[in-house]
């Protein structure tokens, strides 16, 4: 019973790890997210600058460093970092006022009303790259394949990307994987392996049908690799070899047919002209000698008869 429980726990752990790996794969890598270091450094600079300025003004007004001066510096510095913001050239910030959409901000320096407005999303307008795959997917002719693909996409409407979908990175990845599974299931193995361009275009259109309402535009979809089981690869290779041998035999038969037809026409000519037939014989003899690098002894009577025949005289007969 304890052994069974241990196996069950290990199986559950492996399933959990598999699901975790799949979730991690669906999440876009951190390098694709907006880098917040620049804005954090700027906020820290604003905080220090405002705090120092308020403390300096307080010292001039009161003539001493008191707790009230420090508190005033902290309050104004905190308000400043909630007021002054920056956005990179490729960023667009979605500003909400009392929870409702108000405007887009960026790139560069912009201001918000503290505690009334806040930044809901920093949208990266650069072209993004997301990899996705489908494992053990059956084609229309019931062949299991593993397919790896990549999708290039970008945000064209940051407002929709913020309002219409909770996480557009994962949403794009999931939509791409679903479209890939559907497309593979509706195409045969030959269509998947040979007509990749057609499948790429079909995937792009299917994915964009879902993502266009999110403010996301699909630039292109590219299938990187198609893996077929090893035993099936051997079977397909044998079938392809047999098909090539069949084609070669058909071509050979067609050539033999043409050669037979030409020989038939030549036979009619040789029947009507005996001299042409003898010339053909001599040509074949000469060709065989050149190919074999040998020699041939021809009886003089045969040669004389050929010469006399060529000159139009009959060969003498011996009684």
UniProtKB/TrEMBL annotation:
InterPro entries: Band-7_stomatin-like (IPR043202), Band_7 (IPR001107), Band_7/SPFH_dom_sf (IPR036013), Stomatin_HflK_fam (IPR001972)
Domain of life of the native organism: Bacteria
Pfam families: Band_7
Band domain: residues covered: 82-240
Keyword Transmembrane attached: yes
Keywords per UniProt: Membrane, Transmembrane, Transmembrane helix
Transmembrane parts of this sequence: 41-61, 67-87
SUPFAM superfamilies for the chain: Band 7/SPFH domain
Gene3D superfamilies hit by this protein: 6.10.250.2090, Band 7 domain (3.30.479.30)
Gene Ontology CC annotations of this record: plasma membrane; side of membrane
Record flagged with keyword Transmembrane helix: yes
Family membership: Belongs to the band 7/mec-2 family.
Entry protein name: Band 7 domain-containing protein
Provenance organism: Gordonibacter pamelaeae
Native organism taxonomy: Bacteria, Bacillati, Actinomycetota, Coriobacteriia, Eggerthellales
């Amino acid at each position: 019973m304890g052994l069974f429980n241990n196996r069950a726990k290990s199986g559950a752990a492996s399933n959990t790890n598999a699901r975790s790996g799949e979730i991690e794969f669906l999440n876009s890598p951190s390098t694709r997210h907006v880098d917040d270091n620049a804005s954090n450094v700027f906020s820290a600079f604003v905080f220090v600058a405002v705090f120092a300025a308020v403390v300096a003004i307080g010292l001039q007004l009161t003539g001493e460093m008191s707790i009230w001066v420090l508190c005033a510096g902290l309050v104004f510095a905190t308000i400043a970092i909630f007021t002054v913001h920056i956005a990179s050239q490729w960023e667009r910030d979605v500003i909400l006022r009392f929870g409702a959409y108000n405007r887009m901000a960026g790139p560069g320096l912009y201001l918000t009303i503290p505690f009334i407005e806040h930044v809901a999303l920093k949208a990266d307008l650069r072209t993004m790259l997301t990899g996705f795959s489908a494992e053990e997917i059956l084609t229309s002719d019931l062949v299991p394949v593993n397919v790896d693909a990549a999708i290039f996409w970008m945000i064209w409407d940051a407002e929709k990307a913020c309002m219409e979908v909770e996480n557009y990175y994962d949403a794009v990845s999931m939509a791409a994987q679903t479209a890939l599974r559907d497309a593979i299931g509706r195409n045969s193995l030959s269509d998947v392996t040979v007509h990749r361009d057609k499948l790429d275009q079909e995937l792009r259109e299917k994915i964009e049908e879902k993502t266009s309402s999110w403010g996301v535009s699909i630039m292109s979809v590219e299938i990187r690799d198609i893996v077929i089981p090893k035993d099936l690869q051997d079977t397909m290779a044998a079938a392809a070899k047999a098909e090539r041998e069949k084609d070669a035999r058909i071509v050979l038969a067609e050539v033999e047919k043409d050669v037979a037809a030409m020989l038939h026409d030549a036979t009619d000519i040789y029947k009507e002209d005996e001299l042409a037939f003898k010339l053909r014989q001599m040509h074949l003899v000469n060709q065989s000698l050149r190919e074999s690098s040998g020699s041939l002894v021809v009886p003089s009577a045969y040669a004389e008869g050929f010469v006399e025949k060529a000159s139009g005289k009959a060969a003498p007969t011996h009684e």
